[in-house]
Amino acid sequence: MRNFKKIILIVSCVFLLSLIYSTIVFAATPPGQPASGPGGSNYTYTGYVWEKNGSAGTAYYLFEPTPKPENAPVICFLHGWSATNPFDNYILWIEHLVKKGNVVIYPVYQGSILTPQSAMLGYGTTGLKDAITHLQNGSEHVRPQIGSDGLMNFAIMGHSLGGNMTVAMAANYPGNGIPKPKAIMPTFYGADTANHDIWTYNETNIPSDTYFLSLCGNEDTTAGQQRSKDAINMTTQISNNRKDHVEFRSDYYGDPDLVANHSSPGCASNPNTLDYYGFWKLSTALTNYAFFGTDRSYCLDGGTDMTFMGNWSDGTPVNTLIVRDAPVS
After folding, report:
1. How far apart are CA 100 and CA 110, in angstroms?
2. pLDDT > 70: what percent of the chain?
3. Residue 70 burial by Cβ neighbours in a 10 Å radius (0-12, 13-18, 19+)
4. Alpha carbon distance 173, 213 (integer Å)
5. 131 vs 138, 147, 171, CA distance in Å?
């Protein structure tokens, strides 16, 4: 009888260990980069070249696709607080945008940790304009692309503090001398309410024909979601068929976890599903639609193409994006 109990105990332990092992080894994995689509690996260009010009707060990085096209759309990418080196923070997102056929300008705007926030918007605007002039005047560079409307194919996007700056820069057009932004995508803002922005601007001054995505994460405990809601609600001049509020949701179903927190948009290495089906897809589709009239279903209206985040390896869908029209509560 005693031996029988030992056998039962051994069998139970083996079963329990095998169950734990199978849970660890066979946990569902998240989807990789799709082969096609605005977030996909079907790149138009094979690489990029980059340079840094200027000094202190008015410096900028410039990324151009290779092989060199004659012209290309221009995207201004505004970083988060102190993330002044794109290679330490956003390079894979930037690389995706460039290999999809865009020139990316990355204003430094923060010469040091001591740069006052009140000066950053002006520095970023100067860096952007200097970079555009550099593109226009240098024969070795890709020229900014002019759309069928006679305006530069130009967009602004940014993360954290750069998200707030995205809205401010667009709202200060045309007085700030930048090209008219055809699309803006502030991502996981750096302040929880409009009152926390130091810069003076009015969201209703953003051109009414701008395409606008306002992004937040359900686990962004650093800055919260209110600023993303305020921006979409305050831009009453932009109709709902041109803008959406987009909420990313964490998913802990498999391994590794997919966490929609404040740092999620940063991507210097190891991109994940939130990048491929989220930030990269939305930014590429939004600019494609604003510039060329393509990929609307991936960036506006809240349909399946837009909200779908892929499937875990066992076929379970990743938590989809939540897309809302204004007013957002």
Report:
1. 28
2. 91
3. exposed
4. 18
5. 11, 19, 20
Using one digit for the tens of pLDDT, what is the confidence trace for 217-228? 999 999 999 999
CA dist 282 and 199 (Å) reads 27
* Alpha-carbon torsion, ordered 204, 207, 211, 213, to 10 deg: -30
Contact by Cβ (8 Å): 214, 186:
yes
Can you read off the two tokens belonging to residue 97?
């945008």
Residue range 31-324 forms a domain whose CATH class is alpha beta
> How far apart (Å, rounded) are the C-alpha atoms in residues 329 and 133?
41
Strands 183-189 and 154-160: parallel
Paired sense of beta strands 322-324 and 243-248, if any: antiparallel
Per-residue pLDDT tens over the stretch 229-269 = 999 999 999 999 999 999 999 999 999 999 999 999 999 99
What are the beta bridge partners of residue 156?
Answer: 76, 184
Side-chain-side CA neighbours of 242 within 13 Å: the count stands at: 17
pLDDT digits (tens, 9 = 90+) for 203-220: 999 999 999 999 999 999
What would you report as the CA-atom Rg of the chain, rounded to the nearest whole angstrom? 22
**Three-class SS of residue 327?**
coil
Strand order of the β-sheet with 103-107 is 47-53, 60-66, 103-107, 74-78, 154-160, 183-189, 211-217, 243-248, 322-324
- Structural tokens at position 296: 């609307």
Q: Which two tokens stand for residue 117?
A: 């926030």
Q: Are 205 and 171 in contact (CB under 8 A)?
A: yes
Count CB neighbours of 322 within 10 A: 14
Beta strands 103-107 and 47-53, pairing class: unpaired
Measured CA to CA, the distance from residue 285 to residue 282 in angstroms comes to 5
DSSP H helical segments within 110-178, as ranges? 117-137, 161-171
Q: For residue 106, give the H/E element and its range.
A: strand 103-107
**Could you give the residue ranges of the DSSP H alpha helices within 36-174?**
91-99, 117-137, 161-171
